[in-house]
Amino acid sequence: MKKLLFFYFLLIAQIAVGQVKHLNPVLKNYLEIKNELVSGNTANSKKAAVALKEFTDAASTKNMDTDAWKAFSQVKVKMSDHLSAFIAAKDIQQQREIFSGLSDLMIQLAKSISIGETELYVDYCPMKKVFWLSADKAIRNPYYGNMMLSCGNIKETIKH
């Protein structure tokens, strides 16, 4: 009986890790976009957006479990559209405006399934009235960068 329970819990752990493994590039590239917006680097934020769009457009459900696929499929098309607009943006102001829609989708996805971090923070900018997702407790506002770097607060913690 103990062996059976052990293998059951091992299987459950592998399923959870599978969700993280397949969608980890989504979070990694999103956080890179956010960090580049914080630093004001439009070229690097665009590169990260291109990488995220390529992953999103090419993502296969073949190796994802049902919950991961359902959650990702609900945001995949909208995410790709936001990323196309982000990549085509002429300046950092446009990128930052588009980032809020991308952030809403990422928050939705992170609340649905584990996408790579055990703890994520939903941060809020009261000046713009928009949210973003962060892996750090420290506020680094991507909507204002150095102008108002620490403006905002943590509204919610997502734990997986």
**DSSP, total strands:** 3
Shape, principal axes of CA atoms = globular
Return the structural class: mainly alpha
List the total number of helices.
Answer: 4
Largest sheet: 3 strands, antiparallel
Order of helices and strands: HHHHEEE
Name the poorly predicted regions. Answer: 1-20
Distance between the termini: 28 Å
Order of neighbouring strands in the sheet with most strands: 2-1-3
Strand content: 5-15%
Structural write-up:
- The protein has 160 residues and is mainly alpha-helical.
- The protein has one domain (2-159).
- Helix content is 62%, strand content 12%.
- It contains four helices and three strands; from the N terminus they run ααααβββ.
- It has helices at residues 2-39, 42-58, 66-88, 92-112, and strands at 119-125, 130-134, 153-159.
- It has a three-stranded antiparallel sheet with strand order 2-1-3, with helices on one face.
- β1 (119-125) and β2 form a beta hairpin.
- The longest helix is centred in the first third of the chain and has 38 residues, at 2-39.
- It starts with a helix and ends with a strand.
- Residues 1-20 have low confidence and may be disordered.
